[in-house]
Design brief:
With 467 residues, this protein is mainly alpha-helical. The chain folds into three domains: 3-37, no CATH class; 52-315, no CATH class; 323-465, no CATH class. It has 27 helices and four strands. α12 (156-163) crosses α13, α16 crosses α17 (280-292) and α23 runs antiparallel to α24 (415-422).
């Protein structure tokens, strides 16, 4: 593989495994092998970001995060400034599957804690992640497991665990749902003594708003024998998760989710039973990795990123960026969030106008992605945001990119490639190239203003809106 080919592949990897990369970042990554870059993304030596201490100093309202937008603003800072982009990308992946929202939880801090849990455990074994999810206070309230009692079960969590979180419709029975619910009785939430004493003054009765934490209530757990997915025993929630994770249907479901998120847009999840996967061979390869590596998400991703189907150029630019991916990627390039700024509120609102309010999904199914991200109103918001940020010389990242272009032997023959290279080694189709060439001709000369205009056109291109 030539140096140019390796750089192109690395640019593709960083668009999918992160939020894109600057030209200088690609220069550094090109010094090591593609496989080593994958390893570093999966085991990042540095997970630092702007830092909670700075955020709290400038945005005191994000300490308690009681509002609906606090968690998404706080998370956007991390996506934009993290040195471990795949960790944030995988956190976004799980949030889309384990969709939990503010209107019912009514507690921004608890939702932010759930996002932090995905960040800690998102690359671990699926078994471990699902157990942590089952203990998560936001999920417990979201799916009513605090109302799941011995002798009076609530099936909500048991049902969604099977239908949306692990196996998919058609791979279990109604009895399996009931038995799973029995196994999770007693998996509830509790409060500190302080909040119990103050529950009359600051409470979302009867659970309290501040100090939700997992509490196993032994006297409310059903210890009886249960039959689940053909196996019988005195199962508890851990046993249920382990049985689920051993199922081929689970491997298939997670593999298809990964392919959809990291390789190419699939049809919406409700259609998966009727419409086969785009690439059945790729799904089989991912399933094999799942079982060979003890259900490890990290090893499944290693298999995916090193696979022929991920590297195949036919799959490049075949995923529509979600609003979160687009906004985070644009801000990483523009460099505007070099310190905490009140603009984070506006950026989060723009992301919401594009159709994605993080920690507030439209339903338990999460967001319908792919082409559904670009209905007319949302597309206008996407293009306006990208062009306003990346066609603005006042942004430090944009100014630096313009300086880099002008530092080279720039002329009409190479100006387009230099600008595309600065935008993350982007490749655009001929219609966009024609528009770019016309932009250069209209300017009459190549100066900072011309390059600013070229960045603006590139940011509006279909290729930049995809990854």
């Amino acid at each position: 593989m030539t140096g140019t080919e390796n750089r192109r592949l690395l640019a593709h990897l960083m668009r999918r495994a992160g939020f894109g990369a600057t030209s200088s970042e690609l220069d550094e990554l090109s010094k090591i092998s593609y496989e080593k870059v994958v390893d570093t993304l999966l085991d990042p030596p540095d997970r630092s970001w702007m830092g909670e201490h700075l955020i709290r100093r400038f945005h005191h309202e994000q300490s308690g995060m009681m509002s609906a937008f606090g968690p998404s603003e706080y998370w956007l800072y991390q996506m934009v400034t993290t040195k471990a982009p795949l960790v944030e990308k995988m956190t976004l992946f799980w949030h889309g599957i384990f969709a939990t929202g503010y209107p019912k939880v009514i507690h921004g801090k608890v939702l932010s804690n759930q996002i932090a849990m995905f960040r800690r455990h998102g690359l671990s074994q699926l078994d471990h992640l699902l157990i942590e999810l089952s203990k998560d206070p936001a999920m417990i309230v979201w799916l009513d497991n605090q109302e799941n009692h011995n002798g009076a079960i609530n099936e909500n969590y048991g049902r969604e665990l099977l239908e949306l979180f692990s196996m998919g419709v058609g791979n279990y029975s109604e009895d399996d749902i009931k038995e799973a619910a029995r196994a999770f009785t007693g998996w509830s939430i509790g409060n500190t003594e302080y909040m119990v004493l103050r529950s009359d003054r600051d409470s979302d009765m009867p659970y309290g708003r501040i100090a939700w934490h997992f509490e196993f209530k032994d006297d409310d757990h059903d210890y009886g024998e249960k039959t689940f997915l053909g196996q019988t025993g005195n199962f508890d929630g851990v046993d249920i998760v382990e049985i689920i994770c051993d199922q081929e249907a689970t491997a298939n479901y997670i593999a298809r989710h990964m392919y959809n998120f990291f390789v190419r847009d699939e049809v919406a999840i409700p259609s998966w039973n009727e419409i086969p996967a785009i690439d059945e061979e790729a799904i089989e390869i991912l399933k094999e990795s799942y079982f060979q590596n003890n259900h490890s998400m990290k090893e499944m991703l290693r298999t995916l990123f090193n696979s022929y189907f991920f590297k195949d150029e036919m799959t490049w630019y075949q995923r529509m960026k979600s609003p979160a991916e687009l906004v985070a990627g644009v801000l990483r390039l523009s460099g505007q969030l070099d310190r905490p700024r009140r603009d984070i509120i506006e950026h989060t609102m723009k992301m919401t106008f594009m159709g994605q309010h993080l920690t507030n999904p439209p339903s338990v199914e999460g967001w319908h992605e792919g082409e559904e991200w670009i209905e007319t109103g949302a597309l206008v918001e996407r293009v306006n945001f990208a062009t306003e940020q990346l066609g603005n010389l006042k942004m430090p990242g944009v100014a630096a990119m313009v300086d880099d272009v002008l530092s080279m032997a720039v002329d009409e023959k190479n100006i387009l490639e230099l600008c595309l290279n600065q935008m993350g080694s982007l490749e655009v189709k001929e219609p966009i190239r024609i528009v770019l060439q016309e932009t250069v001709k209209k300017s009459g000369e190549i100066d900072r203003s011309t390059i600013e205009d070229l960045f603006r056109v590139i940011a509006a291109s279909p290729e930049y809106q995809r990854c």
